[in-house]
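Before relying on records like the one below, remember that each one covers exactly one chain. Contacts with other chains, cofactors or solvent are not represented anywhere in the record.
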Amino acid sequence: MDIIHSVADLRARLQREPNNVFVPTMGNLHEGHIQLIDVAKPRAACTVVSIFVNRLQFGPREDFDRYPRTFEADCKRLREAGVDVVFVPEEKEIYPEPQTFVVEPSDLQHILEGAHRPGHFRGVATVVLKLFNLVMPHSAIFGKKDYQQYIVLRDMVRQLALPIEIIPAETVRGPDGLALSSRNLYLSTEERREAPRLYRTLRHAHDEIMTGARDFQRIELHSMSELANHGWKPDYVAVRRQADLQAPAPGNRDIVVLAAARLGRTRLIDNVEVFLK
C-alpha cells in the first residue's frame, strides 16, 4: 500500500494505474468505510482512498477542529482491507491558494441538510470535483447514510459530463440499528444507548407508509415529536422522493425518509428508503 501526501506524487503514481476506483473519506475510519472499499475493490485493478478533512464543507460553528483524526489506525485498517493507494494531503496541497472558483450545486443544496448547514454542499462538491480531477477514477463509491450528498454528487457528475460512475453503498449499522458514523464517538455512554431511537423512528415512519399512510406531514411531525419527547433536538424529519428529494406526488413509488437531530452536542443524520409496490 502506497501512502502519498503530495499532488505531484499522486499523479505520478496513478499514471501507471489508469483503471482505478475511488473512495473519498475524511478519515476516522469504521466498518462503514470498509464496506465502501469492499464495494470498490472488485471494480478496478487499483483502489484509491483519500483522507482529507475538508474545511470548505464545515460551517463556522461546526466541528472542523475537533473532528476525529486517526491517521495511524486508519492506515492499518486500509492496509488490512487491501487498498492500493492512500492519498493523505495537507490542506495546502488541495488549496494552494484561496479557492475562489467553486462548484455551485442546484437548489438541492438549500433544502434539508443545506438549510441547516449553509454552504456545506458547495464545499463538498468543490473538493470532490478537485479530487476527481486528481485521481481520475472510472467510478467512485459513496455511502447512502449521507443520502443528500450522494444525490448532489450524482447530479454533479451527470450534469458536468464527468466520465465517472457514482455507485451508492448501503448504510452499515450496529447491532442496535445505529448508523455507523465518525461522529458517534462524540456520544456519551447514556447518549449512545439512546441514539438508536433515530433509526427506530425512521423505521416506524417507513412501516406507516408501507401500510398505506399518505399524510406525510403528519408522519414528519409525529416523528419529530417522538424524538423531542426523548431529549433530542430535531432539525427535520422529511418524507421525500428518492430521485430528487422533493415532496412525493401521488403515484411516486420510491421514497426516502430522512432525519437530522441533535442528541446532546452530537448531530446525527440517518435515512430509510421506502419502496412501494
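The longest strand covers residues 254-263.
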